[in-house]
Design a protein that fits this description.
26% of the residues lie in helices and 25% in strands. By secondary structure, the protein is α/β, with parallel strands linked by helices. It has a domain at 433-537: ANL, C-terminal domain (GMP Synthetase, Chain A, domain 3). α2 crosses α3 (75-86).
């Protein structure tokens, strides 16, 4: 027997309508390339997003057509986030930090029909335009420059709308958005998000025990809108009617801190690289910025416990989360349960440094060679997840079925543990685990410990071939400005925390650590650079 509830589809246009109806006076702020600010309100955003939807339909957009964006975080990108899906199209955010060859591959694989691009990013698009089949290109004029011949002005395109837009009758399982993985192993893979998955993800992200984004917040998505939907933060912020303060291309710590102060930001989301630079700026000049108490979601890679402690001293609270492009992406968030509130400060910090509990509707398990492993906080295995906003396959890539189990779970490629309370902790990527003498070593644990030393700004640990032990850990370390420390002092710092055989056989000081387009350590490049370090059992420069 069925229930008697209405069958109302979960579609993004309903979030847009709610924002326009209830929160028209709430401000949306964007920092432009010249550092000036663009300001308007939800009423303007609502009107313009509908204009975009109407203009796209009049341009011949068909249901399911992909519309690419090559844009920084700002008001026009937010209009695309809602205008494109509301017209029945698919928002395809293109990662502007990828190599042009990868951008061309992605746009062709997605079969993008139209493109919306920032004028400051036209030089990047022009490197690939002859290799892609985009029909029309609409340029957002963030500077005063003229739009070159062959392109159309975004504002002129919007002006073509007559104001008589009607939403198509969308089904909730229709595609609404598309992101590609970073392609660190093989070609990038496309993940196609449905309206239903994005609405459910937005609802989950607003819960008090997850990201707790509410109408009372002033929100800054530091994570790029071209990277995993900026972790869904723009969708959630619009759903609840929160103020938005976009950083544009200015992601250096002083610019972000200025934005946080001026716009009274209370919630921000970004990768550890961003927060590591920010805490260094705050510690260097602690009286310069007067910030609101903030929640700062961190994901993309593990945040060291020392970073969490450091921000607490400034009244800024790091909230650890985990997810992937394939999980829309929020899948776990680390919050202290009421039943654990009695734990000591150190014990609570250890929990907050974990990636956390599965958010509602997401299931997680750890699988080893012999099947599912116990939740004992020690036994490592591959993290597998499933839920209503977890990908069940990749776009137009049937050969990728090995990423999914026969019983319907997504194989994340992350190695993790789950403790008896249900807190998940990433110990490594499958490809980054170090196997020494038949035993596993977690590079993430060693990295976080090294970054807990007061002289260390960043540290990466990775496997290097060894003639006797198969692999041994090697660490590269970036010191804080003006700081000094010896290799011996760093080893002594690690010794109380790890078994002796876990300790890196070498620690190398470097000026910088190579990164992926998502800001993660590029360990493949490090492994290649240092592959002969332990040749013949000795260090070979």
């Amino acid at each position: 027997m069925n229930g008697t509830m209405m069958n109302s589809p979960l579609v993004l246009s309903s979030l847009l309508e709610r924002a326009g109806t209830l929160y028209g006076g709430v401000e949306i702020v964007s920092r432009l390339p010249d550092r000036s600010f663009h300001r308007y309100r939800y009423a303007d955003f609502y009107r313009r997003a509908r204009q975009l939807a109407e203009a796209l339909q009049k341009a011949g957009l068909q249901r399911g057509d992909r519309v690419a964006t090559l844009m920084w975080n700002h008001y026009a990108h937010l209009e695309a986030y809602f205008g494109i899906p509301s017209a029945g199209g698919v928002l395809h955010t293109v990662n502007l930090r990828l190599h042009p060859d990868d951008i061309a591959y992605i746009m062709n694989h997605a079969e993008d029909r139209f493109l919306i691009v920032d004028d400051v990013l036209l030089p990047l698009y022009e490197q690939v335009k002859d290799r892609v089949g985009v029909e029309r290109v609409f340029v957002v004029s963030l500077t005063s420059g003229e739009v070159p011949a062959g392109y159309e002005k975004y504002e002129d395109f919007l002006a073509a709308a007559a104001g008589d837009f009607r939403y198509p009758e969308l089904e909730e399982n229709e595609a609404a958005g598309m992101c590609y993985t970073s392609g660190t192993t093989g070609k990038p893979k496309g993940v196609l998000y449905s309206h239903r998955s994005l609405v459910l993800h937005s609802l989950a992200s607003a819960l008090a025990d997850t990201l707790a984004i509410s109408q009372q917040d002033s929100v800054t998505p530091v994570v790029p809108m071209f990277h995993a939907n900026a972790w869904g933060v723009p969708f959630t912020a619009v759903m609840v009617g929160a103020k938005l303060a976009f950083p544009g291309p200015h992601l250096d710590p002083p610019s972000l801190l200025d934005l946080f102060e001026e716009e009274k930001v209370t919630f921000a989301a970004g990768v550890p690289t961003i927060w590591l630079g920010m805490i260094q700026a705050l510690e260097k000049d602690p009286d310069r910025w007067k910030l609101q108490p903030m929640r700062m979601a961190v994901g993309g890679s593990a945040a060291p416990e020392g970073l969490i402690r450091a921000f607490d001293r400034f009244g800024l609270r790091i909230v650890h989360a985990w997810g992937m492009t394939e999980t829309t992406p929020i899948a776990t968030v680390s919050r202290i349960k009421s039943t654990l509130a009695h734990l000591s400060g150190d014990e609570q910090y250890a929990i907050r440094a974990k990636q956390g509990l599965p958010v509602p509707l997401i299931e997680a398990r750890i699988v080893g060679d012999q099947g599912e492993v116990p939740w004992d906080g020690k036994t490592m295995g591959e993290l597998q997840v499933r839920g209503p906003w977890v990908a069940g396959g990749y776009y137009n890539l049937p050969e990728s079925r090995d990423s999914f189990t026969e019983d319907g779970w997504f194989r994340t490629g992350d190695v993790a543990t789950i403790d008896p309370e249900g807190y998940m902790k990433i110990t490594d990527r499958t490809k980054d685990l170090i196997k020494s003498g038949g035993e596993w070593i977690s590079s993430v644990d060693l990295e976080n410990a090294l970054m807990g030393h007061p002289a260390v700004a960043e540290a990466a640990v990775f496997a290097v071939p060894h003639p006797k032990w198969q692999e041994r850990p090697l660490a590269v370390v970036v010191l804080k400005a003006g700081a000094q420390v010896t290799v011996g002092e760093l080893r002594a710092f690690l010794e109380p925390r790890f078994a002796k055989w876990w300790l890196p056989d070498a620690i190398v000081f470097v000026d910088e650590i190579p990164r992926t387009s998502a800001g993660k350590f590029l360990k493949a490049k490090l492994r290649e650079q240092f592959r002969d370090w332990f040749a013949d059992g000795e260090h070979r420069a």
